């Protein structure tokens, strides 16, 4: 069978068209597959991004929680340290309170907070001193002692036990604290009285200092004046004479 050139051309053209169609279909199939895979990848990427965002939020939340825990731990450590310090302070206060025969809590701890000295008292060394500086009428020796005792204290004692403290420190303390008032012979009652012709301090100890300005007097009670040398600053006088006075109580050392 003879095939003309025209027929050959026709067959060849038809074959080429068929191949092109097949190739185009293959390309379409591939494109569809690629498009579907791309869409799938985009969906996966979007899902991964959402998960990553969620993980980022969870990480930030965990970091915040960690920081909160760290701050709470620091706060608890500070509170624990404060409690330890308070406990140590309370133990010291308790030990100091136990050292008193009858601790005057209303005087040292009026608001539930204990202080070394009561209000309006002055600490010196291991004692607290109250200087009665009100105006007249002043007090007799007995009245002065009663007022001191009403504050769980007593008139000041200047005995041989603290003579060195008195000489080198208390002298300046007293001189800087007591006030001149009315006249030179007015002073402050101290806890010294004559019992059976012997000068005795209110704590029961005998006086061995004798810082008298008027030794040999027949009077039975003593007070201290400001305008005099220390070793001549005590005046012997009668109980009915009215003066200011000095109270003394053991300080709450803690």
TrEMBL record:
Pfam families for this protein: Lectin_C
GO function terms (MF aspect): carbohydrate binding; pattern recognition receptor activity; transmembrane signaling receptor activity
Coiled coil recorded as keyword: yes
Keyword Transmembrane: yes
Cellular component, GO annotation: external side of plasma membrane
Keywords: Coiled coil, Membrane, Transmembrane, Transmembrane helix
GO biological process: immune response
Regions crossing the membrane: 20-36
Signal peptide positions (record): none
PROSITE patterns listed in its UniProt record: C_TYPE_LECTIN_2 (PS50041)
Domain C-type lectin: 124-248
Domain of life (superkingdom): Eukaryota
Coiled coil: 38-96
Protein name: C-type lectin domain-containing protein
Organism: Oryzias latipes (Japanese rice fish)
